[in-house]
Amino acid sequence: MKIREYYATIAQNYDQNRFGNSYGQFVHARESAILRRFLPKNLGKTLDLGCGTGRLTHFATDGIDQSAEMVAIAQAKNPTKNIQVGDALATDFSENQFDAVFCFHLAMHLPKAEVGQLFDEVRRILKPGGVFVVDFPSRKRRKLLGWQGSTKPGSPWHGATAFDVENLLELIGSGWKITGSEGLLMWPIQRFPVTVRPFFEKLDEISGRIWGKSWASYQVLKLEKN
Question: In terms of Cα–Cα distance, which of 136, 118, 126, 109 is closest to 4?
Answer without folding.
Answer: 109
